[in-house]
Amino acid sequence: MSFSPPSPFNITTPFAFPPNLLPTDSSPKWMNKADNAWQLMAATLVGLQSVPGLIILYGGAVKKKWAVNSAFMALYAFAMVLVCWVCWGYQLSFGDQLVPIWGKIDVALEQKFLLEPAFLGLFPNATMVFFQFVFAAITLILIAGAVLGRMNFYAWMLFVPLWLTFSYTVGAFTIWSTDGWLTKMGIIDYSGGYVGPRLTKDRERFPPNNIILMLAGAGLLWMGWTGFNGGDPYAASVDASLAVLNTHVCAATSLLTWLILDVVFFKKASVIGAVQGMITGLVCITPAAGVVQGYSAILMGLFSGSIPWFTMMVVHKKSKLLQKVDDTMAVLHTHAIAGTLGGLLTGLFSEPHLCELFYGSPGKYMGLFVGLHRGTSQSVSHGFRQMGVQITGILFVIVLNIVMTSLVCLFVQLIVPLRMSDEDMEVGDEAAHGEEAYAIWGQGERLENSRFSNYNDIEVPSKGPGSIELA
């Protein structure tokens, strides 16, 4: 290898590197550097949705007394999921098949494995392990949103690894692994209360302590969704570009739809409502992001901004059954209902040629509307079959999560109470962690007379009359 030095050197003969100093390329020939770089970037964007995105969103969206606890639940889950993921979670989700719904247990730590090509995509397994980890982590952190302000933190510490192992990995293998039975059936998924209630007064009034902070977290969640959906083709491809655009179009449409409904029916432009609409749009478009046209993304935004709004603002308030469900961050409406809606609309709007770009299987995937439009008996049959597969997948995930979550909660309850005591819930962060989110006097010190404060264990020398001594 040689090069001609710049003109200031005034040397006319090329310079040759000594053989032992020749630059080397550590990338194997099979790896696509652009795809690998994009996949790592997409994974990082998804990670930022959790840390710090949902940490900030949760910390600002709850009562002041729960800001530390809510943020800490997210931070803990992110760390715990990563350790479990590389030790056994990844191979259970994407490893060699053990049974049709689960992979063989193994680690994802061996250098030989991590540097080999991933099961899909022109990049190493190390990249795929990290990319799939951030999806697992944000799933657990979203679950936390339903139990903020009431779940015992020690119970949460046990719940996270157990739910990851016995619920998430089963769903991941079934839907996203190439060996999963729903995958083989042809499901289109572009990307994927035992605790007891809060105190009555917290359920009746649970205002956010910092709406601006909440908006900052929501913004990170929105922008991070670029990697959430843009990374799922496992390539820096045209399909990834389409998925990113559709994601943001649907989210914006959903936000505006929710906002308009709030203004029309409640005469107030609610910031919190706008954030809810943004989230329902992001959740709804996720299974369809790269397999539907832009017009469909707008329609999905209209549906995701109106149907969850109706279930939350009308049905929930009138249903005695739903009012018994204590869902701190309205996860039922923003994720369960919006996600179900997205799965169904994917079965209606998916385009065969876009599905071929993503799955590489011509003619296998076809939305019902396309099948009806083409009019042939085969196309109509394909369309109805796709809707049947989508509904099967939705029912499977619902049953899996209900059963496994219930069993995990029952097991955890044998070891530690799931719900905080009424006394601890009355106090909040200081009772749970001995810390508070915001200074309430002086230079950030806590009140000396608090029985939860560490200051109670510190002796401060007396400085004369009027000084306070802490025993």
From TrEMBL:
<keyword id="KW-1133">Transmembrane helix</keyword>
<keyword id="KW-0472">Membrane</keyword>
<feature type="transmembrane region" description="Helical">
    <location>
        <begin position="394"/>
        <end position="416"/>
    </location>
</feature>
<dbReference type="InterPro" id="IPR029020">
    <property type="entry name" value="Ammonium/urea_transptr"/>
</dbReference>
<feature type="transmembrane region" description="Helical">
    <location>
        <begin position="37"/>
        <end position="59"/>
    </location>
</feature>
<feature type="transmembrane region" description="Helical">
    <location>
        <begin position="295"/>
        <end position="315"/>
    </location>
</feature>
<feature type="domain" description="Ammonium transporter AmtB-like">
    <location>
        <begin position="37"/>
        <end position="438"/>
    </location>
</feature>
<dbReference type="GO" id="GO:0008519">
    <property type="term" value="F:ammonium channel activity"/>
</dbReference>
<dbReference type="GO" id="GO:0005886">
    <property type="term" value="C:plasma membrane"/>
</dbReference>
<protein>
    <submittedName>
        <fullName>Ammonium transporter</fullName>
    </submittedName>
</protein>
<feature type="transmembrane region" description="Helical">
    <location>
        <begin position="129"/>
        <end position="148"/>
    </location>
</feature>
<keyword id="KW-0812">Transmembrane</keyword>
<feature type="transmembrane region" description="Helical">
    <location>
        <begin position="211"/>
        <end position="228"/>
    </location>
</feature>
<feature type="transmembrane region" description="Helical">
    <location>
        <begin position="155"/>
        <end position="175"/>
    </location>
</feature>
<comment type="similarity">
    <text>Belongs to the ammonia transporter channel (TC 1.A.11.2) family.</text>
</comment>
<dbReference type="InterPro" id="IPR001905">
    <property type="entry name" value="Ammonium_transpt"/>
</dbReference>
<feature type="transmembrane region" description="Helical">
    <location>
        <begin position="271"/>
        <end position="289"/>
    </location>
</feature>
<dbReference type="InterPro" id="IPR024041">
    <property type="entry name" value="NH4_transpt_AmtB-like_dom"/>
</dbReference>
<feature type="transmembrane region" description="Helical">
    <location>
        <begin position="240"/>
        <end position="264"/>
    </location>
</feature>
<feature type="transmembrane region" description="Helical">
    <location>
        <begin position="71"/>
        <end position="91"/>
    </location>
</feature>
<dbReference type="Pfam" id="PF00909">
    <property type="entry name" value="Ammonium_transp"/>
</dbReference>
